[in-house]
Amino acid sequence: ATFRIATRYAPHNLYVDTTALREYADERGYADEAPADLFAWGSWEPGSGVEATSIAFDWSPGLQVRWDWTGDEYVRFSGGEPHEWLSIDGDTAQISADTLVVMFAARYTASPSGAGSSVPAMETVGTGRALVFSGGEVREGTWSRSSIEEPFELSSADGSVLTVPPGKPWISIFPDGRSLTW
Question: Has residue 35 got a pLDDT over 90?
């Protein structure tokens, strides 16, 4: 179900054919049921958030990502260039999303048991700052959960539920202390 693209450098050249992955899962008896929702979904009243038409993520000194609102969706740029997806057939298009969910969390280094290299990881149990961008607007709040088996609860500053509008979301767990502006 995995394949590599020769025109990209490892590890950024490893892809998954989701159709083949589903067949693989079916052959091994994995359940077809979708997992529980990660967030509370719900529509927003237009004009009830703060304008956010260009969002800049400073992931690291060598990686700046920007999402721009087109009037219909957010489109992604990396290093100032359109960031495109690539299909197994070689088709490309710019990465896009209806909604961006950003959860700030502590980054740490995880050391796997046994052999293997240490890898960067994010702490997603507890609480932290959250931003939800949709329709060219942003709403701020917090995320929380007490275990990795639970969905995230997003809350506005007043304690009410911060919903995620329906559509195609892009979810980022963003390192505490890094710059994100809009």
Answer: no
Fold that domain 36-181 belongs to in CATH: YerB-like fold (3.50.90)
pTM metric for this prediction:
0.86
Whole-number CA gyration radius for the chain: 18
Tell me the three-class secondary structure of the chain, residue by residue: CEEECCCCCCCCCEEECHHHHHHHHHHCCCCCCCCCCCCCECCCCCCCCEECCEEEEEEECCEEEEEEECCCCEEEEECCEECEEECCCCCEEECEECEEEEEEECEEEECCCCCCCCEEEECCCEEEEEEEEECCEEEEEEEEECCCCCCCEEEECCCCECCECCCCEEEEEEECCCCEEC
Domain boundaries, the chain: 1-33, 36-181
Strands 99-105 and 96-97: unpaired
User: pLDDT at residue 7 above 90?
Assistant: no
